[in-house]
Design brief:
Elements: H1 3-8, H2 22-33, H3 38-41, H4 45-55, H5 60-73, H6 77-82, H7 85-92, H8 99-115, H9 123-127, H10 134-145, H11 154-163, H12 173-185, H13 192-205, H14 225-229, E1 245-256, E2 259-264, E3 275-281, H15 288-297, E4 307-315, E5 319-329, E6 339-342, H16 344-349, H17 358-361
The structure holds iron/sulfur cluster.
């Protein structure tokens, strides 16, 4: 078992760390207040897996239509394993972080080859699959298989930081390990899945991020040290984020009678393998002359004088794109290497353009 989960087991809490009745109070609140969600109504390992991966960066209400469409189109692990990559990207379009769904497909292939198409009921085996970390393995393991394992996400860390009035940086692996130990010490043996979900649900509905927690509605209020000290709102603490690397990008919206020019990104790295409007990374072309010269270097002929588009910005976790844009019309011609022309129907049905280009996508009619 991986370090965090392994250390979470079998270590009783010191008396000062005990919050008596936490598990029972939480389960009883969950029973009465839990949201009815499709992956809760039918919590197969596949359903829990898909939902947890989607919910990593997306709120439940926003993720639900994506979840339902995904499960309708790809109802099980073998269907996910066999899905053509473009269709898979299209199902994920709007959720972002496409590496998540690519890793899901890699994992689905492993599950088909090694486990006959059914996710294994084993925490370590789940952890060994591509894209499945401790939290997701814990969620699938506890909710679908009833395993006594933790599932500690940002919601749970926030709740425990406040419950214990603990100022440790939750971004520090040692602090996370310590919180996980406390989470597990309060986990009722007969209900690991409900307990884990109840903690997440409390964090999502009551012990809210980024504002005043709803302590008046909280089943754990009497136990909560952060509430007693008046510091709950200031918790949890995180280490200051590292500065993002700024990267200039020039985006070209180029249209010929055959459609818009799309460029496929490299198979590895940022937004790997996705199609995008043609773009030059590492440079911001500020004049129409520079933009026209760049088109000529690409071998694109007969372009109209490029017209400027508004500047835009997109934040990735470690990079900030500062984009400038140009638009031009071209006569019919071969697309440069690594590119293709896509008409509006193909743009809507076939190609998933990353959200980083949101400011420019609407100018392409999508
Ligand atoms: S009492 Fe308030 S701060 Fe404490 S866990 Fe409940 S909602 Fe969070």
């Amino acid at each position: 078992m991986r370090e965090t989960a392994r250390k979470a087991h079998g270590e009783p809490l010191a008396a000062a760390e005990c919050l008596p009745g936490l598990g029972e109070k939480l389960l009883s609140w969950f029973e009465q207040n839990k949201r009815v969600l499709p992956f809760r109504t039918d919590p197969t390992p596949y359903h829990v897996w898909v939902s947890e991966i989607m919910l990593q960066q997306t709120r439940v209400s926003a993720a639900l239509p994506y979840y339902e469409r995904f499960i309708r189109t790809l109802p099980d692990v073998p269907a996910l394993a066999a899905c053509p990559p473009e269709q898979l990207n299209k199902l994920w379009e709007g959720l972002g972080y496409y590496s998540r769904v690519r890793n899901m497909q890699k994992a689905a292939k492993v599950v088909c080859e090694e486990y006959g198409g059914a996710l294994p009921a084993d925490y370590e085996a789940l952890l060994a699959l591509p894209g499945i970390g401790e939290y997701t393995a814990g969620a699938i393991g506890s909710i679908s298989f009833g395993l006594r394992v933790p599932a500690v996400d940002g919601n749970v860390l926030r709740v425990f930081a406040r419950l214990y009035d603990d100022e440790g940086y939750i971004t520090d692996p040692k602090v996370k390990q310590e919180f996980t130990r406390r989470v597990m010490a309060h986990q009722p043996p007969g209900a690991p899945g409900d307990y884990n979900q109840a903690l997440m649900e409390l964090g999502a509905l009551v012990c809210l991020p980024g504002g005043e927690p709803l302590c008046g509605e909280c089943p754990l209020a009497a136990l909560c040290r952060g509430r007693a000290s008046g510091r709950a709102r200031e918790l949890p603490r995180k280490a200051p984020p590292k500065a993002r690397r700024v990267q200039p990008v020039t985006v070209f919206l180029l249209r010929s009678p055959e459609g818009w020019l799309l460029q496929r990104r490299p198979a590895e790295g940022l937004l790997a393998g996705l199609y995008q409007p043609f773009a030059l990374e590492g440079q911001r072309l500020e004049s129409a002359g520079e933009a026209a010269a760049a088109l000529a270097r690409l071998g694109l002929e007969g372009a109209s004088l490029p017209q400027p588009l508004p500047a835009a910005k997109h934040l990735f976790s470690h990079i900030e794109w500062q984009m400038t844009g140009w638009k031009a019309e071209l006569p019919a011609q071969r697309a440069p290497e690594g590119c293709l022309w896509a008409d509006e129907e193909a743009l809507r049905q076939q190609y998933a353009l990353p959200g980083a280009f949101k400011a420019y996508k609407k100018r392409m009619g999508i």
